[in-house]
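for the writeup, i need someone to sanity check this before i put it in the appendix. the sequnce is what the collaborator sent (i think, or maybe the updated version? ugh). structure was predicted straight from it, no edits. if anything looks off just tell me and ill rerun, i have time this weekend
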Amino acid sequence: MDLNTITEVVRQPGERPGADWREGDAWLAGGTWLFSTEQPDLRRPIELTALGWDSLVPDGTGPENGATCTVRELYAFAPPDEWTAGGLLAASCEAFLSSFKVWSAATVGGNICMSLPAGPMITMAVALEAEYELWHPEGPPRRLDALDFVTGDHRNVLAHPGRTCAASASRSAP
């Protein structure tokens, strides 16, 4: 999809992404949805992958994954044998009926923030009782249970679903 309304790409957002948010901005991590359909209001994508968030960090309480973790990275992750729900990670990726190109670009955070009814990462996060860390441009980060995030079809607790989400990580129970 040609996005002929783009006037600028923010490739190196500040330490506090969104502090200079303006009308027409959108977060960009994988961009599989952003580039798949006409976006007449989009002026300035803000590249989140430049923030260098860790994709997956396993610890005793479960995996912590950054919002920019791709579906492919999550699928390739080998959870420890003692994680009884570890197989749910790969199964959730397999529910993402898409091409290898989408798997390589689509992000866990993007799928969650889009809040679409067929969001396998949403289902996985809720099943694992995940908690999200949400960043707000003017305030401190806040934590929210995955169950409370999505409020309807393409709707969530964010001001502009799919456009104003910056979730640094989620932690799930193993």
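Residues 111 and 119 are 6 Å apart (CA to CA). The first helix runs from residue 71 to 76.
thx in advance!!
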